Amino acid sequence: MREQSENRFEAAEGARAQAGMYSFLANLFNQRPNLEFVKRLRELGPDGFSFDVGQGENSAEVKHGLQEMASFIDETQGWSEDKVEQELAVDWTRLFRGVSPGYGPPPPYEGVYSEGVGSPADVLQAIVQVYHKYSVDVDEKAANRPDYFGIELDFLRHLSESEARAWEEEDEQKALGYQTAQQEFLSNHLGKWAGKFCERALEEAKTEFYRGFLRLTQSVLKEQMERSI
Questions:
Q1: Under CATH, what is the fold of the domain 2-228?
Q2: What is the DSSP string of 113-129?
Q3: DSSP 8-state secondary structure symbol assigned to residue 103
Q4: Predicted structure pTM score
Q5: What confidence tier does 227 reach under pLDDT thresholds 50, 70, 90?
Q6: Measured on CA atoms in the order 195, 160, 188, 31, is the torsion positive or negative?
Q7: For the chain, which residues make up each domain, given as ranges?
Q8: Which residues of 196-220 are buried (b: 16+ CB within 10 A; e: fewer)?
Q9: Is the Cβ–Cβ distance between 144 and 6 less than 8 Å?
């Protein structure tokens, strides 16, 4: 009995940690850098992006990405906050908003990068159906479409948090159901196109911060995909 309780606690902790990572990644996609963002980065400091990420190819790439993000923070310590904000905001816009052809990669929407799965409208409909299945409302007035990279990451955050709560409530069947939902969403949606976007965007990134972030995102999702196989 005690062993089962400990196993559920560890599973809940793991799901919470996973939700935290998805939340971190989603926020960086969804939030245009501003002065408050710059202040938080400086409070975190370069050491805030340095921690043990384990071994293996994916872990090495995760570490590489974190080091690049940390390097940007370190190297811009002497800059004004306004200058850092502008540098990051310009790069964020170039990479994630699809301002115009030739200025950055095509925007990170599943309907743009998916192939052979129908029209963008079909993709949106399929995504919305999945969201509704797990009680996630879609705001039609939101700044981003439901198939935006950051929105899909936030959905994975929602599933991970739901899994953690189920473990804490000792509902193993529900917890495993949320695990399956995460695996299916990665296999059928985000995992199918995330790598394409990240590779394309890495060619366009101008700051070490967003190069590292893209590398981190790509590696984290690749690792999650491999775990789900």
A1: TorD-like (1.10.3480)
A2: H--SS--HHHHHHHHHH
A3: B
A4: 0.92
A5: confident
A6: negative
A7: 2-228
A8: bbbebbeeebebbbbbbbbbbbbbb
A9: no
